[in-house]
Amino acid sequence: MGMKASNAIATFFKYFVLILVGLIMIYPLLWMISATFKDNSEIFAGIGLWIKNPTLEGYKNALNNFGGSINILQAMLNTYSYVLPKVICTVVSSCIAAYGFGRFDFPGRKILFSIMLATLFLPQVVLNVPQFLLYTKFGWVNSPFYLAIWVHCAFATETYFVYQLVQFMRNVPRDLDEAAAIDGCSSFQTLYKVIVPMLMPALVSCALFQFMWSCNDFMGPLLYVQTPAKYPMSLFVKLSMDGDTGFAWNRILALSLISILPQLIVFFCAQDQFVEGISAGAVKG
Amino acid sequence: MSKAISRRDFLKVSGAVGAAGLLAACGGSSNTGSTATSTAASSAAASVAGLSSDPVTLTMSWWGGESRHNAYQEAIKAFSAEHSTITVNPTFAAWSGWEDTMSTKFAGGVAEDVCQINWNWLYNYSKSGQTFIDLNSVSDYLDLTQWDEAKLAACNVANAQQCVPVSMTGRIFYWNKTTFDKAGISFPTTLDELMAAGKTFQEKLGDDYYPLHLGAYDRMILMVFYLESKYGKDWADPTTSTLNYDADQIAEGIDFIKSLVDGHVIMSLPTYYGSNGDNAAHQSTEWITGKLAGCFEWDSSATKYADALDEENKAGFTVGEEIKFGDYNGGFSKVSMGLAITKTCEHPAEAATLINFLLNEEKGASIMGSECGIPASKAGLAAAQAAGAVKELVAEANGKVMAFVSNQLDPLFESNDLKATGTGIYQEVFDTLDYDNASGADLVDTLLDGMESVGYSV
């Protein structure tokens, strides 16, 4: 058996395993798509992809507008109208906070950093009531601009991202900062001209995570959005789920599928940036 | 290049922006805070101010599914058409997460003026009457005579009529006629017939056919039904939560459930979990295809179980009769939901008018129909029936339950620590019963300890 043949066999097995595992991974998503065309009894009867009695009811009902208060398009617009500011605020504020902790030696830095890290371990449930009371005082509950949901992100409250960026920043050599300083950059210029480009992959991953988490957030909007016309997707998907009298799952799944499409698109678009950023910019010579 | 931004400049600017944000935020707070406190004080008075002639805005909240959202909104529209000075701003969602949201709002004193509430919320969030107003103070606007004394009494907590019941609910048997026909028998109406049905199913249809299905919580409820039928007293005192049964009697109840499993009347829980995990019966293949030919469920759940059946079985869904296990008509009904006015409501008279419109008046009640269960208000029920807005299946089930049951439910029975799927004490007891083939006497202590920990006196 020649080199070529054995290579071909090896390649075949590699692909075989990869495709097999890939299929297993993607099966739930495929099932979800197929289930949008099934009725309840068929959905619970088995986990196959084959559809016996295809129905479009799920998609038709997905367009229902709940007494004219809210429809799917409005819900999507509502979602992104707070997700985008949230993502931008998070990335900018976390980056600045991380820069402070990673590059400057100021009095109380260690203590402040530990306090900030400690907030990582505070579960959201514990914060719900005090936060709600605070935002009620501010008059931010049910604000038309979703203030209670995103404004706090402008103050680097997403500790996890700050921590992640500080760690990434350690890998950016200080020599670069010094070189920038010699070239006449101020501290802030060093950040956005030298460090931010190097941190790009980390920033993109922060943005992606925050994007996904915010789109999926259910409790936040449930607490702070009270006008049905302002409901985001996460609430809209669940509006018809009445456990007592029952509901059609195909509609819920169709709604979920439609609502994750933008997320999937963003994810695939950002993937290149995600990988590219890692190889870009290193110290030479 | 423009002037470089130094670190000091940057800090100055960011500090200033931050401070401005804080100031702006605090500025908005002053008026909302003061209104909340002033209304809390005013609603403590025995009677309320009359209807205002100025425009009034009310807020209202409920949970539910699509048809309930639509019904409420349409009824509110009709209400606003009749009372042009009152605007109602609703907020609504599905049940999941709703109690967390509402409890946060109750704690913050910012809950809506009119709230659809679960019965045990009265005890969880307004035990001393701190959250909801006494509806007797607005009886000029809300006709309380439309409810039976007993139904109103169930919502009287801390000497205050804190809500009016929208509907009452209770458990009843549902049978799948298609499967019973295959087995060649009629629906059981006595315990003996039920036991016999288990045998017949096993012999004629096979080991995987059962006349009845009971999940762990259903088993607990049926056990209480059984004991109440036999001894004729409430499971626990509704006001003091003192358990009325001793260890021997409870052991007898648990053994009754065990006899159903042993007699092939109900599937053992390990077998059910094996193919369905935590899923409720209406999501199990066995129910959908008719292998589990009966269930013991809330009257309001009738349509859910009927709709889940496949084509072959759908037509056979039938509301059964309550089974009398002893000398008494055991079993309980409970308030499935109520409407309450919060103490932070600035216009209780208008809020009461709204509730009266939704539950008692012909226009409102005929739109609401049975969307929140079969109306508990007499006038409301009549109007809904006249308008043909009542689901027949649910009405039939509700009628049978209400005509039969004679016991009252205590507010702790549905405590989350007891009834929760997966972690609750009820499930622990009945899981252990099947998994370890234990006896009632072995499990009484587990149950009693669990009940004591949520506040029962045992």
Automatic annotation (TrEMBL), chain A:
<dbReference type="InterPro" id="IPR035906">
    <property type="entry name" value="MetI-like_sf"/>
</dbReference>
<dbReference type="GO" id="GO:0055085">
    <property type="term" value="P:transmembrane transport"/>
</dbReference>
<dbReference type="GO" id="GO:0005886">
    <property type="term" value="C:plasma membrane"/>
</dbReference>
<keyword id="KW-0813">Transport</keyword>
<feature type="transmembrane region" description="Helical">
    <location>
        <begin position="12"/>
        <end position="33"/>
    </location>
</feature>
<comment type="similarity">
    <text>Belongs to the binding-protein-dependent transport system permease family.</text>
</comment>
<feature type="domain" description="ABC transmembrane type-1">
    <location>
        <begin position="76"/>
        <end position="270"/>
    </location>
</feature>
<protein>
    <submittedName>
        <fullName>Carbohydrate ABC transporter permease</fullName>
    </submittedName>
</protein>
<feature type="transmembrane region" description="Helical">
    <location>
        <begin position="194"/>
        <end position="213"/>
    </location>
</feature>
<dbReference type="InterPro" id="IPR000515">
    <property type="entry name" value="MetI-like"/>
</dbReference>
<keyword id="KW-1003">Cell membrane</keyword>
<keyword id="KW-0472">Membrane</keyword>
<feature type="transmembrane region" description="Helical">
    <location>
        <begin position="248"/>
        <end position="270"/>
    </location>
</feature>
<feature type="transmembrane region" description="Helical">
    <location>
        <begin position="79"/>
        <end position="99"/>
    </location>
</feature>
<feature type="transmembrane region" description="Helical">
    <location>
        <begin position="145"/>
        <end position="166"/>
    </location>
</feature>
<keyword id="KW-0812">Transmembrane</keyword>
<dbReference type="Pfam" id="PF00528">
    <property type="entry name" value="BPD_transp_1"/>
</dbReference>
<feature type="transmembrane region" description="Helical">
    <location>
        <begin position="111"/>
        <end position="133"/>
    </location>
</feature>
<keyword id="KW-1133">Transmembrane helix</keyword>
